[in-house]
Amino acid sequence: MKNVTDSFVSLGHWPSAGSFGFNTDILATNLINLSVVLGVLVFFGKGVLSDLLDNRKQRILNTIRNSEELRGGAIEQLEKARTRLLKVEMEADQFRVNGYSEIERERFNFINSTSKTLKQLENYKNETIHFEQQRAINQVRQRVFQQALQGALGTLSSCLNNELHLRTIRANIGMLGTITD
């Protein structure tokens, strides 16, 4: 930096200050040229650069606003989706509970129905057994009665002779006559 300031200070001390010539010191001339170019750029480019930066700032702000709106819409859709999900989960739980209770109710009804059917079948079986016992008893009674009757008739036939037979008939007719009178 000392060289740069020395080159500006030394301008006033040139031996040929009144004459025109070329400056062969490359560092001093580049520095002057750069400062002139930068000065011109700052003076004329300030408005253009400001406009470019303002446009860029507006685009960034618009992009941020659009992003915020999209974010808000996405959040709203997410909340709606969560609400629908909760509703569907509640309905699924309700269907599950109803399904389980329906299954239990059907199971209970099936057990009761089967129990009633078994009781009816047991009653039918008992009635059938009782009926068959009564029929068997009646058949045995009939056979015993028939055998007793045949035995009595056989005994009567062998014990009765004509005279005893006639007396029995007369006695029976006599009893019938007294009953009718």
From TrEMBL:
Where is the protein situated, by its record's location annotation? Membrane; Plastid, Chloroplast thylakoid membrane
- Which Gene Ontology terms of cellular component type are present? chloroplast thylakoid membrane; proton-transporting ATP synthase complex
Alphabetical list of InterPro entries matching this protein: ATP_synth_b/b'su_bac/chlpt (IPR002146)
| Thylakoid recorded as keyword | yes
Top-level taxon of origin: Eukaryota
GO terms assigned for molecular function = proton-transporting ATP synthase activity, rotational mechanism
Span-the-membrane segments of this chain are 26-49
Q: Which Pfam families match?
A: ATP-synt_B
Q: Which UniProt keywords apply?
A: ATP synthesis, CF(0), Chloroplast, Hydrogen ion transport, Ion transport, Membrane, Plastid, Thylakoid, Transmembrane, Transmembrane helix, Transport
Keyword flag Plastid: yes
CDD domains per UniProt: ATP-synt_Fo_b (cd06503)
Topology term for the membrane: Single-pass membrane protein
**Which family does the record assign?**
Belongs to the ATPase B chain family.
- Quaternary context: F-type ATPases have 2 components, F(1) - the catalytic core - and F(0) - the membrane proton channel. F(1) has five subunits: alpha(3), beta(3), gamma(1), delta(1), epsilon(1). F(0) has four main subunits: a(1), b(1), b'(1) and c(10-14). The alpha and beta chains form an alternating ring which encloses part of the gamma chain. F(1) is attached to F(0) by a central stalk formed by the gamma and epsilon chains, while a peripheral stalk is formed by the delta, b and b' chains.
**Function statement:** F(1)F(0) ATP synthase produces ATP from ADP in the presence of a proton or sodium gradient. F-type ATPases consist of two structural domains, F(1) containing the extramembraneous catalytic core and F(0) containing the membrane proton channel, linked together by a central stalk and a peripheral stalk. During catalysis, ATP synthesis in the catalytic domain of F(1) is coupled via a rotary mechanism of the central stalk subunits to proton translocation. Component of the F(0) channel, it forms part of the peripheral stalk, linking F(1) to F(0).
Extra remark: In plastids the F-type ATPase is also known as CF(1)CF(0).
Instruction: Write the protein's name.
Output: ATP synthase subunit b, chloroplastic
